[in-house]
Amino acid sequence: MPRSNRTRDPIFFSPNATSTGRRQFLGMAGAGVLATLLPGCGSDSSDSQSYPQTVAMGQQAIQQAIDSQTQPVAAISIAMLKGNDVFWQQAFGVSSVPSQTKATIQTRFNIGSVSKLFAALAATILQDRGLITLDTPIIRYLPTFTMLSPEYAKITTRHLLSHSSGLPGTNSRNLFTFAPVPGYAADTQAELANTHLKHLPGELAVYCNDGFTMVEQIVLAMTGQSFASFVEANILAPLKMANSSYLTSVPSDGSFSYPFANGTQYQEFVNAYATGGLSSTPGDMMNLAQMIIGGGMFQGQRVVSAAGIAQMGTDQTTGLLINPSPEWRWGLGWDSVRQPALDAAGVLGWEKDGGTAFYSSEFFVVPQAQLALMVTGNSGYDARKLAETLVLSALKEDGTVASLPARVSTTAPSAASGPGIVNAGGIYGNSDSPFQVIANPDGSLQLNQWAGAKRAWTPVGAYQYRSDGWWWSNSDTASYRFAVASGTDANGNAFSYRYLMKRVVPGAGYAYLTLPVGQQLAALTPLDNAWQQRLGTQWTLTNDSPTAVPIVIDGNEPAFLTTLSELPGYVLYGNTDLRYQLFVPLADDRGGMSVKVPGNFGRDLYEIRFASASSGTTLTLGSSIYDKI
């Protein structure tokens, strides 16, 4: 995908699924335009008579993705576990497009944010050993850690692992590269010293890769070992995950799936190890699943405490002050400890998805049924839909559930008389690109979104209020409403935020999921002269590695500064890679974050800083430095 170094999560909430950029990966099974891959056939599988209907269904679905005429997927690998039996393990397609080398069950894929579970396990092991506690402020372990907001001193390891720390989001510099680039975690910590929190620790939960990167620094400080070395010695080795590793250097052995883009084959390196850097196989991940199901035990050896596994699987959202989507239940490392499709079937399941610039993965564990699934492959297939379908099929096949849940409706219900929405009109900011809501006199609303390439608003659609309390369009399966979060924060300050909520039916279609996709913003004092002079300027990135994926694949697209006539006092900055974020001027040389949006669309926010250099003016965004063109 063009400039596809984004760190997103999850795809079904993307307000503009055709847009991609560096900030939207590592948690999201991506759309995969980068992986313009040729289909291949070739597989090897375990010989098992268990779950024949589920296995046959999965084989057919995966082969269809491999053979797709519109978006073929080079390779997909899968494994499923019942108890201690891996009853299905199979690889499809080719690991190398130019050589048409068949993928095997030993072929490794970059599993993206599924790696976050290993960060949570590492922290839990440190707690088991008495080296840390999850609820102690991390400055006790990292006295060099600092930020501009004084509340940074309240951040705990639990906050880091449950996306509630308030860290800005993702350090995008050298996140995905075609050669290993060391020092990513230290670079992230250094940059955090120059920025503010985007919300108070524990106030809300918004997907945050940098929280897991900071776990790398805690492991190093408390053990003297690098994060990769610690995980390999204390988790991968005991679990006999011989086909799993962090690509801290160019590998000299092992079988890998290789990205193929623009006629060239590459090897992808994810330098954010704790948040998304593990290379693994579904078979290896079934060893992890056995340990999780076994309450921390694997083949008679204790890897982590049962209490630690239980904590990872405990809902961490219950104490959040701002939580307009209560069905989204983060664990420690887990995306959901009450997986919605399984919840609809009355079964408790834990889920973690993962995506990189080139790969999409899903990992499910159903602890009470002792069932697990891992699927990974080149981007371009719907990993969540496949995982939900197969796990539910297996639960039905073995009698855990009598029948599958009903699929929820994506058809608009009857029109109804709705509440007044005049106050809901205006501009809604997020980390992706702003929305415009126009409240029409007849009670309907027009929804537009900023299109950066056109530098103009483009219609999303016209929506009418319906009997279920949501605004629908007859041509859109998603629906919208508004939610207001108000109260008093931990510092005693009153707040009230209006959110534009989006509801969709992801995956196999068994449950609605909602997230706020934007926060209503009020006009500010018009920009002063220093900021007015920057409007219309363009900026080019100068300090990424020449092997960075977006540099190699798409060149170095300039970013631009502009403003919205409908929202005085804000500065809009971005490009198709960075996306389009509204900044609030904090001083003539600094712009700050403007929104607090939980879930996904307040993620990866940045501050911008301007400085004079010998070559002219520079702009710093996160740890990335740009020169004025």
Automatic annotation (TrEMBL):
Transmembrane segments: none annotated. Coiled coil: none annotated. InterPro entries: Beta-lactam-related (IPR001466), Beta-lactam/transpept-like (IPR012338), Diverse_Enzym_Activities (IPR050789), TAT_signal (IPR006311). PROSITE patterns: TAT (PS51318). It comes from the Bacteria. Residues 72-393 form the Beta-lactamase-related domain. This is Beta-lactamase.
